[in-house]
Design a protein that fits this description.
Nuclear Transport Factor 2, Chain: A, eight-stranded mixed β-sheet, 11 helices, 8 strands
Amino acid sequence: MTAELMARARSGDGDAFRELTAPYVRELQVHCYRMLGSFQDAEDALQSTLLAAWQGLDGFEGRASLRTWLYRIATNRCLNARRSAARRPPQAWDVPGVEPLAPTRLGEVVWLEPFPDALLDGAVDVPLGPEARYQQTEAISLAFVTALQVLPPRQLAVLVLRDVLGFRADEVAELLDCSVESVKSALKRARAGLRRSVAGAEPAPARDSPAEAALVARFLHAWQSADVDALVELLTDDAFVSMPPMPFEYQGRDVVRRFCAALFGAGRRFDLVPTRANGQPAFGAYLRGPDRISHGAGLYVLTLAGDRIAAMTRFENTVLPAFGLPRSLPSR
């Protein structure tokens, strides 16, 4: 940041402001996503943050870095957004032609959206403070982001700022307008809550490794051919399927078998287009139609554990454009 750029921005030069903030936009977007669990909500919070920073630039006194000041604005915008998002009702069953099976449970986090890997470049390779406990790639996984959403808002903010980004306790207290003791107390409770949510998962194979590629290829073939037996062979014993914003979750190989059998038994056949979300393998799912056109039905994100699939999360087709995927394509 140069004094000249800041002076120009304060005088109303939008180009100077964009140049000042450009290095932080992607990482702020990921921060908002971790806080909110929704790609669209994160984008809205990011734009609100940049607008507030632009309008309040005269109030930036330089006591902290511009990056820290932007994180302060973004975090508080996200805390406000979480209060509104908490009032959203879950969506009713909406899978045409398929009768709903009784779910294993109803998920707590239903307004979840995936984050495109294409937007992670430059966003997870950011300078971290000495207090960081998680790798940036680990802290964008669906399991981690989902677990964050279960935490109370203030605990979530403290944990992300302290353990993911590595801000010091006194910096977090300044960001959140609270005491250092309250930060320490919130962090202790947040860590305990997070451990309960994400404990025990076997590591996934490395990204783009032969092991990952082989497992993904087997899934793609099994799903496109509606081969339930081959699909179930790929699952862990406690594998589960979830479908936000519908709250229905199905856990266990036998339950997932019945779910997939009902899906394919209704005559639904899919073409899959590989992509990546949250650092994980993902597929645009296209339902084959009688008009020889496959219509976008959603996005599947796989959570891998060792040489098996631990979870499949199905998102609505409204997320496809964020991944550069079309709404329809010719049937194969």
